[in-house]
Design brief:
Chain B: This is ABC-type branched-subunit amino acid transport system permease subunit. The structure holds two protein chains of two kinds. Chain A has helices spanning about 1-10, 55-60, 85-90, 105-110, 120-125, 125-135, 150-165, 180-195, 210-215, 235-240, 240-245; strands at about 15-25, 30-40, 45, 70-75, 75-80, 90-95, 170-175, 200-205, 220-225, 225-230. By secondary structure, chain A is α/β, with parallel strands linked by helices. Classes of the chains: A alpha/beta, B mainly alpha. The structure holds adenosine-5'-triphosphate and magnesium ion. Adenosine-5'-triphosphate (ATP) binds near residues 28, 52 and 56 of chain A.
């Protein structure tokens, strides 16, 4: 199965195909016809002003948010109608825009949850694996503490660890460095690149344009639920529609 | 020792059966399901066990087993019907289930003995038997609270959407909680009934919900240990409170109110917090120093 995937990627089969996905909340078209493709071995970024539908798109991709139309295909399997819980088993992990940890469980337990539902093979050497992951995101010293005793930046690291412990093939991150200082951001950026080398493709929603340009090798830009640009970071940042929507010209109140 | 035992045998047995009842209410709460169906299961288990003995001339343990299973199946089916309800609506529906059971008991004619109840289900049950039954239940629940399983159950309760995103079958767990609650409630009802040799419709009532809830609130809702602490406190309290006489109910209310306000996770929660604090003293000191250095 895993070999197949590698083979398919080599032949150019996309990791994730998103086709004409829309999510409407009553009259609000939060996501309105998004079509995109993610190939294995890249870090993708998504830019867009507040309320442009980035988080809703992640919600639809993970099947947590019911969608109005469209389809998702991961590694050749259409999972548009499968229940949300199967998405994690397929190899897609995510973090949320707000911190969502169990406050009466230790940091270590919270991270272990990321692999608790995987098949036996995915859970072997869980103890060694959790130690390794904690070391990488820098939470080893607080392993036995509870999330509500930690700073916001530390809590985000714990969420990051929970998302990667199960070795997903696609990692969806919703503002992973929000609330972190610049040195912490650099650390997380470096970690993302390391993960890429280990075969984890990433799809990152972030407001920090500089970080996205430094970290990602392909960017999407959204506004009003639609894609307004995609391409290399340099090209997307310079794109007039993006400049208009996201970087200024009356949009300064956003972001 | 044996003197003390023979003087208190009724209290000891009541503690154990109260623990089972409290556990049948605690399990769904631990899975994030606001269900009181355990009390209805208590009635089903009690009546089924008694009917099997009185009408079917079954012996004690097959009758207990039948009561347990019938209660488990009925409660599980109830779970399938009400699983889409949330919060208060779920609570109301499951209390209605309990009321229906007692109405059926009143109108069951010779089968249930009507309003007078069913007499003569003289079970051969010793304290040792009850201890064994409780041990089996507690061992199973401890297993569900431990390690991987415990983490998953906690996530289902605290954040169902997150649980889904982590690949946990939230609805499956919720349905399972009805089954477990029904089995334990049925066991509690069957044992209690055959121990006393009688059951009446008025026993299957809202006061059992209150008894179970107070035990859980004061003891702790997150673990079987909390239910044990609560059951011990509320069964033995009257013997220590006898000096306040008619003020006993007031003292009860006071204890519950204080626990609800100051011990949100019950007595067990306080013990766990203290244990956690002492265990992580070094870590917390280091984090505090780290924060100071940064600022
Ligand atoms: N459950 C919901 N019900 C109704 N409207 C919603 C819901 N979730 C999101 N929306 C609306 O959909 C739009 C897109 O929201 P979304 O959270 O996806 O934006 P975003 O791009 O992630 O913004 P931000 O940068 O602030 O996180 C907003 O107008 C929001 O108010
Ligand atoms: Mg968002």
């Amino acid at each position: 199965m895993a070999e197949n995937t590698v083979e398919e990627t080599r032949r150019g089969r996309p990791l994730l195909e998103v086709d004409d996905v829309a999510v409407h909340f009553g009259g609000v078209k939060a996501v309105d016809g998004i079509t995109l493709e993610l190939r294995a071995g890249h870090i993708y970024g998504v830019l867009g002003p507040n309320g442009s539908g980035k988080s809703t798109l992640l919600g639809a991709m993970t099947r947590l948010t019911p969608m109005t139309r469209g389809s998702f295909v991961f590694e050749g399997n259409d999972y548009t109608r499968r229940p949300a819980r199967t998405v994690h088993h397929m190899g897609i992990a995510r973090t949320f825009q707000t911190v969502r940890l169990l406050d009466d469980r230790s940091v270590r337990d919270n991270i272990l949850l990321g692999q608790d539902t995987l098949a036996k093979a995915g859970r072997k050497d869980a103890d060694a694996r959790v130690d390794e992951v904690m070391e990488r995101v820098g939470v080893t010293a607080v392993a036995r503490m509870r999330p509500d005793e930690l700073s916001y930046g530390m809590q985000r690291r714990v969420e990051f660890a929970r998302a990667i412990i199960g070795r997903p093939r696609l990692l969806l991150l919703d503002e992973p460095t929000a609330g972190m200082n610049s040195s912490e951001r650099e650390e997380i950026g470096a970690l993302m690149k390391q993960l890429l080398d280990e075969g984890i493709t990433q799809f990152i929603v972030e407001h920090d344009v500089q970080m996205m340009v430094d970290t990602c090798d392909y960017l999407f830009a959204m506004n009003f639920g639609k894609l307004i640009a995609e391409g290399t970071p340099a090209a997307v940042v310079k794109h007039p529609a993006v400049q208009e929507a996201y970087l200024g010209k009356g949009a300064g109140t956003h972001a | 020792m044996s003197d003390w035992y023979s003087m208190n045998v009724v209290l000891i047995q009541t503690t154990l059966t109260t623990l089972l009842l409290a556990l049948s209410i605690q399990v769904p709460l631990r899975y994030g399901v606001f269900s009181f169906a355990g009390v209805g299961a208590f009635g089903i288990g009690g009546y089924t066990g008694a009917m099997a003995m009185v009408h079917g001339e079954w012996s004690t343990w097959p009758a207990v087993l039948l009561g347990t299973l019938v209660a488990g199946v009925c409660t599980f089916l109830l779970g399938l019907v009400v699983q889409r309800l949330t919060g208060l609506y779920m609570g109301m529906a499951t209390i209605a289930f309990t009321l229906i059971i007692s109405v059926l008991a009143v109108n069951g004619g010779d089968w249930t003995g009507g309003a007078m109840g069913l007499y003569g289900a003289i079970g051969e049950i010793t304290t040792m038997h009850i201890v064994l039954a409780v041990l089996i239940v507690v061992a199973f629940l401890a297993w569900t609270e431990y390690g991987r399983r415990g983490r998953k159950v906690d996530t289902v309760r605290e954040d169902p959407e997150l649980a889904n995103a982590l690949g946990i079958d939230v609805n499956g767990y919720r349905r399972l909680s009805f089954l477990i609650s029904g089995l334990i409630g049925g066991l509690a009802g069957a044992i209690t009934t055959l121990l006393r040799s009688t059951i009446t419709p008025s026993e299957v009532n809202f006061h059992l919900v209150i008894l179970a809830l107070t035990a859980i609130v004061v003891g702790g809702a997150r673990s079987w240990v909390g239910a044990l602490i609560g059951a011990v406190i509320f069964v033995w309290l009257p013997t220590f409170l006898s000096f306040v006489q008619e003020w006993e109910k007031v003292a009860y209310g006071f204890i519950v109110a204080v626990a609800a306000i100051y011990l949100p996770n019950g007595v067990l929660g306080v013990v766990k917090d203290l244990w956690h604090k002492s265990r992580t003293r070094d870590e917390r000191a280091r984090v505090a120093v780290g924060l100071q250095e940064k600022s």
